[in-house]
Amino acid sequence: MVKKELKTTCESFRKLGYSSVDEKELMHYLVSYRWKKAAPSSIQACREDILHIKPNEFFDYQQLVAQTSRLTINDWQDLKDLF
Protein backbone atom coordinates (compact mmCIF):
# COMPACT_ATOMS: atom_id res chain seq x y z
CA MET A 1 0.00 0.00 0.00
CA VAL A 2 2.88 2.37 0.68
CA LYS A 3 5.52 0.72 -1.51
CA LYS A 4 5.53 3.57 -4.03
CA GLU A 5 6.18 6.17 -1.31
CA LEU A 6 8.98 4.08 0.21
CA LYS A 7 10.60 3.76 -3.20
CA THR A 8 10.23 7.51 -3.85
CA THR A 9 11.82 8.38 -0.50
CA CYS A 10 14.72 5.98 -1.09
CA GLU A 11 15.28 7.53 -4.52
CA SER A 12 15.34 11.03 -3.01
CA PHE A 13 17.92 9.82 -0.46
CA ARG A 14 20.04 8.42 -3.32
CA LYS A 15 19.90 11.76 -5.14
CA LEU A 16 21.29 13.34 -1.97
CA GLY A 17 24.15 10.82 -1.93
CA TYR A 18 22.76 8.26 0.53
CA SER A 19 22.91 5.21 -1.69
CA SER A 20 22.70 2.49 0.94
CA VAL A 21 19.15 3.12 2.24
CA ASP A 22 16.59 0.62 1.04
CA GLU A 23 12.82 0.28 1.42
CA LYS A 24 13.08 -2.50 4.01
CA GLU A 25 15.26 -0.37 6.32
CA LEU A 26 12.98 2.61 5.88
CA MET A 27 9.90 0.54 6.75
CA HIS A 28 11.66 -0.86 9.81
CA TYR A 29 12.44 2.70 10.93
CA LEU A 30 8.80 3.71 10.52
CA VAL A 31 7.30 0.74 12.35
CA SER A 32 9.81 0.36 15.14
CA TYR A 33 10.54 4.02 15.84
CA ARG A 34 8.62 6.77 14.10
CA TRP A 35 5.17 5.19 14.40
CA LYS A 36 5.81 3.15 17.54
CA LYS A 37 3.81 5.37 19.90
CA ALA A 38 1.42 7.04 17.48
CA ALA A 39 0.76 5.60 14.05
CA PRO A 40 -0.84 7.82 11.42
CA SER A 41 -4.62 7.64 11.41
CA SER A 42 -5.03 6.69 7.74
CA ILE A 43 -3.20 5.21 4.77
CA GLN A 44 -3.04 8.67 3.21
CA ALA A 45 -1.41 10.04 6.38
CA CYS A 46 1.11 7.17 6.25
CA ARG A 47 1.94 7.99 2.64
CA GLU A 48 2.41 11.67 3.39
CA ASP A 49 4.58 10.93 6.41
CA ILE A 50 6.82 8.61 4.37
CA LEU A 51 7.31 11.29 1.73
CA HIS A 52 8.37 13.80 4.40
CA ILE A 53 11.11 11.73 6.04
CA LYS A 54 14.37 13.67 6.10
CA PRO A 55 17.70 11.84 5.86
CA ASN A 56 18.89 13.20 9.21
CA GLU A 57 15.80 11.73 10.94
CA PHE A 58 16.51 8.29 9.50
CA PHE A 59 20.24 8.43 10.25
CA ASP A 60 19.64 9.68 13.79
CA TYR A 61 17.63 6.50 14.29
CA GLN A 62 20.40 4.39 12.71
CA GLN A 63 22.92 5.99 15.05
CA LEU A 64 20.70 5.21 18.03
CA VAL A 65 20.41 1.58 16.93
CA ALA A 66 24.19 1.33 16.53
CA GLN A 67 24.82 2.84 19.96
CA THR A 68 22.38 0.53 21.73
CA SER A 69 23.37 -2.62 19.86
CA ARG A 70 25.45 -5.31 21.53
CA LEU A 71 27.48 -5.74 18.34
CA THR A 72 31.11 -4.67 18.25
CA ILE A 73 32.75 -2.89 15.32
CA ASN A 74 34.09 -6.26 14.11
CA ASP A 75 30.53 -7.61 13.83
CA TRP A 76 29.39 -4.96 11.35
CA GLN A 77 29.44 -6.34 7.83
CA ASP A 78 28.88 -3.31 5.63
CA LEU A 79 31.14 -0.42 6.51
CA LYS A 80 32.35 0.35 2.99
CA ASP A 81 30.00 3.33 2.69
CA LEU A 82 31.90 5.04 5.49
CA PHE A 83 35.22 5.06 3.65
Automatic annotation (TrEMBL):
Pfam families: Post_transc_reg (PF13797). This is Post-transcriptional regulator.
